[in-house]
Write a structure and sequence with these properties.
Blueprint: H1 2-19, E1 22-25, E2 28-31, E3 44-49, H2 55-61, E4 73-75, E5 81-83, E6 98-99, E7 102-103, E8 109-114, H3 127-144, E9 151-153, H4 154-157, H5 171-176, H6 182-186
Parallel strand pairs: 3-8, 3-9, 4-8
Antiparallel strand pairs: 1-2, 4-5, 6-7
Bound molecules: zinc ion (ZN).
Length: about 190
Amino acid sequence: MLIFFIILALLLFVMILLFFGVRVGKQGIYFWKKSPNFGRPIRYIIIHGTGLTSDKEALSYLRDKSKEVSCHYFIDSKGTLFQLVRDSDIAWHAGESFWGNDKSLNFTSLGIELFNPSAGNGKAYTAQQYRTLIKLLNLLINKYDIPVSNVLGHCDIAPDRKTDPGYLFDWDRLYYANVCDLSRVQKRGRCER
Ligand SMILES: [Zn+2]
């Protein structure tokens, strides 16, 4: 019985220490006092098409350390959503890129990869993929207050290197769902090559 009370008292003591921000790590004893002032500005959403042969291959490619490529979200051919990197972290999806005066858009964007065996240049994306994508875009646009004019394709921000999400990507569908602006629909020719 005494043991029980000792354990209970110890547990309570630890909980009180944790409550007051006391932590123990490799650096010794320290205090955790969280500040809300951190993170990175999220101003863009970049849409990609994978160009790999299967959902499974795409997902493992994007999680393979040696490939040095990732994205925040991956939408497979059935429209299933996967999150690979936290929004607050920088994923490696845009590479050398620019839009207006902004450069290296990895730092200020979220990357969404959609599975497509030909990166949208030969095979259309599925209805389920658009459904998941539009729902996700709505959520992210509202959460981070991103202008719809900043929802772009990889081909927009790296025009000399990239063609994804490809000429078969249906920007009209996004426009009618209010998750991209009219210029995307009008200028989609720039992604056709
Ligand atoms: Zn891409």
